[in-house]
Each structure stands twice: as structure tokens, then as C-alpha cells.
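Hello, quick one for you while I still have it in my head. I'm working through a protein record and want to make sense of it properly. Would you mind checking whether the C-alpha cells look sensible for this chain? I owe you a coffee for this, so here goes:
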Amino acid sequence: MSGMKKGLAAIAALAASLGYGAAAGAQDVLTYTESTGPLALGYPVPLPVDSLTPVDGFRSFSSLQARHLDIAFSNDRVEAVVVGRSLEGRPILAYRFGDRNKRTVDGLREPAMLINGTIHAREWQSPEVVTEIFERLALNDDDDGLFEYLSDNTNIIIIPVLNPDGFLQTQRWPDQVVVGESGSPRDGRQRRKNKLDADDDLFTLVDHLFGVDLNRNFPVGFGGGSPDPESIVYHGPFPLSEVESQALVAAADLGPEGRLRSFVDYHSFTKLFFIPNTGNARRDAITESLSEKAQSTLASFGSDYALVPLAVGDVIGATDEFFAETFQVPSWTFEMEPDIQGGLNYGGLGAPNDGFMLPDSEIARVRDEVAQQQVMLFYHQAGPPSIAAVRVVDRGNGRTVYRARWTPSRNGKRRILRVSANRPLRADRPYRLWVAFDKPMRVRRAGAVVPYPGLVQPNLPMVELSAEGQSVAFDSLTWLNERGRAPDGYRRYRDDAFAADFTLPAGLDGTPLRLSVTVADFALQQLDANPRTAVDWDDGAWSGYEDETGAEGDVGGTDSTLVIGRLAR
């Protein structure tokens, strides 16, 4: 018998000895308490709070939904879409964040990302964290930086509560559960499944085991759950039998589904990432690398999340497996706090299934930490960076000697370099080189460029202007964080451009110079070394993403495509 099963058996025996009706063949309604009885948590019992804004605790379903709708109605970059209705007729709402044209600012087709919350009713951490992510995106979309970039260039679909019937059942009975012969609380606060064949009355004990585990109801790996309707992992009568599961699939089409680049399903508990592998070597490698970056971001806050890669074919009918296999995108089941050991630090895990009951005092921290790693995932899957525009200005007279920008072709699969100025550079003249990218490359704290939490990258790019074995020395090089025209301000977003001052040495007078730039964005993705072929996602990996040798792959490299200054006559 496993340690967990032994623990549950001990609790069942204790409950029976105290007359709580948990003996074999019996069932009863028990109450969670802070300090007395078999269901003592060791901390105050979390109860739903009516509040539109975040609190040190858990909001009620009605408050969460009102918050979501308020954001949607007040922000023209958020669209509320009913993607289905629950068994009891409640709308299942997805929120699409991004501009309405589904095109990047450069005219390319936007990538899509999908996150899902509250597939399991009792996991109250999930709707809180997903709501925090939603709030960060929607309330910061005019920041001239990261969030505005995501708003302009991605299509993010958010389902805060996929299982509203079950979630409401847990909030109707926030401190009460039915405990049966297994000793494992079910229904009430500990309902996991949807409400198939179960009513709202906790004291109708005959139906407390019924319902479908929606995270076993998906076609990939269907059958990995249980065929027993009373099992905690009952997979339902057939794949996608449940309206809630169908709603999640419908939400993917808001991308539309062919534009998806990632999927995350938020759960609790145990502090880990389940990482499905599909056998597509490139997709699996990208997913593993991205998982490690997310883990590092969380570790920077002191949260030790474990990575659990799953073998190819190790499937149970879960959502992450479905999205990984069907759409060949990085996909995860993300299990939040507490964990088996860490929960003891705040007094938890002393009663059956209290791992799903994070203390009120901890959820604000969890929301913040998890939201930051998810924002990094969005940024990463928006695509690798590429040079978008270059300009060289004579600082002595303000004259532009070189100006070029990449523009998309009509089909959006290639870019065209348009050079509108190209004059010889003269010796002993002071110049400023300005290079802009298609995304913000850095983040700041208190005005200073800093690494994204948990990720380390060089502060400045490596830049070379050279010809005939001779290189230009730069007097200064800095990221630009102020509005203004090139070459003194950023292009579209804070820190999407840098400027470097130099004086051309005599030996290079009138000589065309090769520009080489090596830099990674703050999610540690290297430049697309050839902007001519626009980067996209195809069959689980990047397409059009090249290194300095011209080889296509998933790494990138140094961009040396531009030559500045035509030959003097």
C-alpha cells in the first residue's frame, strides 16, 4: 500500500472510531475545521469571498465571473465568447485577448496560445491564478512594452472556469464533504468531477461519487481513466462525451486552432509540470527547454517545481496530451501548491485532500509567481526575435546616411528589405547606429535593465561593423527606453532598439560595412539570422528560423544580412 493510501486508511479508521460514519459501507457529511476533529486543517478554512479585485484568499465564482466580464466590457482588446454550456446550462466563457485583426503589427498572422482553468472543481488555486494572468494582460496592454507587444502580436485565449457546475458545488459547501468507505472525501468542497448524475444537495449521499473526470475524457489516451462511474477518475462513456470537454475544444478554434503554439492546464496540487512527449523530436526538445525556463522563473521566487517528462504513449486522456498530440504544440499540466512536503510549512496536509485547500494567506504569492512564468511562456511562443529596421545618422549634421526596414510580403511568409537611404560613410565623422527588433528585448526594474526572473542574458548585444578585416570601435551602446524618433528612441516598444555611437576610422572611408548582431531576447531566444524568411510554427517546431550558416532549426544565431554604406565613387 502506498504512503498516501496508508494515510487515507488511517484517517478513515480515526473517523470511524470517532463515530463520523467513515467505516466500510458507510458515508457521512464531515466538516473541515481549523484545529479539531479528523478534518482539522491546521489553518483557517478557506471560504469564498465576494470581491471583484484580488484578495488574500479565494473569490467566489460570481465575483470571478463578474471580474472577467467587467474586464471584457471595458477593454476593446478583450472579447468574451461563450464556447459551450455546462450540464446545468451555465455558460462556459473563453476570453480572447489581443487586437481584432489577428495580425501582427508587421502584417503577419498572429500566433495563438490557450490556457485553461478549473477543469477539476476543488482546485481553487486554478481560477485565481488564471484570473491573475488575465488581469495582468488586460490591465497593462498600454504599457509601451511587454504587455502591449503581446496585445498587438498574439491571440491569447483564456478559460478561467471550465467546470462551473462542479466549482459552484465546492463553493456551496466550502467546509463540508462526504466521506465514504475509502476515507477519501468526495463531493461538497472536494468534488473533482463535473455534475453528471449528481445533484446540488450534499446530503443526497447516494450520488456523491458520480460525475465525469473531465481530465480523462479526451481522445488521446482515452481509457487511461476508469470505466467505473463511481471512480474519482471515471473517463465518461466515450471521448469528448461531456459538454465541458467539448467547450475546451471549441475554445481552441478561436485561435484558430491551426495557429496554436502552446497550451497550459492549471491544476493543484503537488508543485510540478507534467510534460507529455509525442515522439516529435523537435517539439519535445522545445517543450523541455521551455519547461526548464519556466521552472527557473519559479525557482527565482524560491518555489521548487519539479519537471515530470512523460514517455511517449504514456497517456491517460488528459487535456495536455490531447493538445500535444493533436496540434503538436508545447503543452503542460501545471500542478500548483501545496506539495506533499512543502505544505507542512504552513500547517497543511493534516486532513484528507487538504492539499487542494491552500491557506488564504498563500494564494496572493502563488498568483504572482505563476503569472510571471506564464507571461514568459507567452512571450517565448510569440516567436524568436529578428531585426526589423536599421538606421545610421551622422551626428554632426543630423543627416541619415542609411535607412532600411524589413516588410512582409503579400503572403506573409517572407520579408522584403526596403532600403530608402544608403550613402557612403566618411572617415572621422561621428555616427549613431540604431537597430530595432520586432519585439521588446529586455525588461526593466526601477529603470534599469534586468534579467527576467530566473533567466540570465547579457545586458548588451554583440555588434560588429566591419570590412576588409577591420572593425569599427563603438564609443557607447545602450538599450532605448524613451519615446522618440530613430535613432534616439525605441521603435514600438520599450527596449526593442539599441543605439551605438562610433567614429569611422580613416582606413574605412567610403567602404561598405557588414553589420553583424548577436543577441538573445529575455526568454533566451537567439535572433533569426535571416529575417527574409518569416519565422512561423509548423508541425511542432519553428519554420523559417535560421542560424548564421543559413541552416533552419530552433536555435537562431548572428544576423549578418545587412551591408551599410554603398561604395563611394
